[in-house]
Amino acid sequence: MTTPDSMALGNDARDMALTDSASNRRNVLDLDDFSAEEIFSVLDDTGAMVEVLGRDIKKVPTLRGRVVVTMFYESSTRTRISFEEAGKVLSADVINMSSSGSSVDKGESLLNTGLTLQAMGVDVVVVRHPHAGAPYLLARHLPKVSVINAGDGLHAHPTQALLDMYTMREKLGSLSGARVVIVGDVLHSRVARSNLWGLTKVGAQVILSGPTTLMPLDLLGGRGELEEDHPFAQVDVDTDLDRAIQGADVVMALRLQSERQHSGFLPSLREYIRRWQVTEERLGKANPGALVMHPGPMNEGVEISTSLAHGDSSVIEAQVTNGVAVRMALLYRLCAGQGNRIGDDP
Amino acid sequence: MAVNSNGKPERQIMDAQEIQRSLSRIAHEILERNRGVGSLVLVGIHTRGVILSQRLAENIRRFEGSQPPLAELDINLYRDDLQARENPRVRPTKFPVDVRGKRVVLVDDVLFTGRTIRAALDALSDLGRPRQVQLAILVDRGHRELPIRADYVGKNVPTSLDEEVKVRLTETDQYEDVIIVKLGREVK
């Protein structure tokens, strides 16, 4: 395929690239196009991958000869390394590309970089980008490559949501009916957005808490304007964390970025800590055995108290471990059946 | 020959009693050849091999008074045809015993091309170095594509490539029997 042709892909080809039926998924862009059944099947496969990670020799041959490129246009430690480890455990060749030191420095567009990778025969591109929608652009124009969204702007971070759900299911036994409180800067959190899709699909009850200025009221239909059958219609917002946390099975604290304070979203850091920090005292109002989660990186002493972050209720380390297994399950799934795809050369 | 619900002709080649007799005989043969339960481990290959391994272990317990440890192996991460497969699923490998130095009996329902067993041998060697690996199979239908043979066979059944052998067990299927289904498709 030549470059100009792929730019002018017809509608049919474009739809094909983006139509992810559960039967033959090509891309993981967000969880909105996952069914509950597909989410559960990914979580089940993740359990099998956890077993592989527990072995003395953490290596299975299944993705031998597959090439995975991680393209990170934003800094990241755990997500990038997690994908790299996931690919390597499955015997794929993993190549890491960061925007600095690559042709991106010379002004190459995202799409041209993607086309270059496709021309090199790369099988999976894992992309993180500061702009929402960047992975969708790649998915639309790279018919021979599977795209995984590793975080796009404020929009979505589906692999994080899947690892969060795996961790909850592992510890709680079931997701259905679980009361999950997400606390903090939900407005600017792609992790929260993907979790909203995933958790509502599997029947968990989601409550968002934090300062009103940081609640995504537009996403929730400005309170009450959503269609009744929209999955988010069941999501509650309660700015009073002490009330929201009552009876919670999971309390997920989100990272509070310091710049939010300076741009008028917060009255003061001290007030935020006083009203919304997840602390041992507040956790006492949750259900016994409630889990404390955080997608990282943490600001200990801001959105979560240090003792809680490293305490018995914390499953933050388990989240990191499970992150590798979830990404293994997704890489495995995307690489299967590639030989049968439309758009591939015979 | 009867016709099944999909309109494909099928015939039964083993009934419940024959399956039970075969497993009972194989259990005896395993004990005879390995001189008791000693360092045996029965390793079932998902899904029906796991069930058959449990039944073999139960037989051995009845004959011998003690039963060998059981393990479950999933070979999906060791297959050589991932790119041709739609929606592959991975099930957990459960290996509660150290495989090193053990006499491992792999258990599966049907032996066909031998590729599953090849994958199982690779999977096993990633877990350690067993002293010996043997293979127990309920139905050997021929058409090997690799130099692999079974040590214990319930029944040898000559088949054509246009047929599918289905082992149906009460734990996973409605029935308890082995049937051959004529697929009626072009054979390459």
Features:
heterodimer; A: 346 residues; alpha/beta; Rossmann fold; 2 domains; five-stranded parallel β-sheet; four-stranded parallel β-sheet; 15 helices; globular; disordered N terminus; disordered C terminus; B: 188 residues; four-stranded antiparallel β-sheet; 9 strands; 26% helix
Gyration radius of chain B, rounded: 17 Å
Task: Please list the strands of the largest sheet of chain B in the order they lie side by side.
Answer: 4-3-5-6-7
CATH fold topology of chain B: Rossmann fold
Shape of chain B: globular
Low-confidence region ranges of chain B: none
Low-confidence runs of chain A: 1-22, 342-346
> How many structural domains does the protein architecture of chain A include?
2
**Beta-strand share of residues of chain A:** 5-15%
Question: What share of residues are in beta strands of chain B?
Answer: 25-35%
Q: Which CATH architecture of chain B would you pick?
A: 3-Layer(aba) Sandwich
Question: In total, how many domains does the architecture of chain B comprise?
Answer: 1
Q: Looking at CATH, which topology of the largest domain in chain A would you report?
A: Rossmann fold
Give an overview in words.
The complex is a heterodimer of chains A (about 350) and B (about 190). Chain A has 2 domains: about 5-155 and about 320-340, 3-Layer(aba) Sandwich (Rossmann fold), CATH 3.40.50.1370; about 160-320, Rossmann fold. Chain A is globular and about 55 Å long. With about 350 residues, chain A is an alpha/beta fold. In chain A, about 40% of the residues lie in helices and about 15% in strands. Chain A contains 15 helices and 9 strands. In chain A, helix 4 (about 80-90) packs across helix 15 and helix 7 crosses helix 8. Chain B is α/β, with parallel strands linked by helices. Chain B has a single domain (about 15-80, about 90-155), classed as 3-Layer(aba) Sandwich (Rossmann fold). Chain B contains 3 helices and 9 strands, in the order E-E-H-E-H-E-E-H-E-E-E-E. In chain B, strands 4-3-5-6-7 form a 5-stranded parallel sheet. A 4-stranded antiparallel sheet of chain B has the order 1-2-9-8. In chain B, helix 1 packs across helix 2 (about 50-65). The radius of gyration of chain B is 17 Å and the shape is globular. The interface of A and B includes residues 23, 90 and 340 of A.
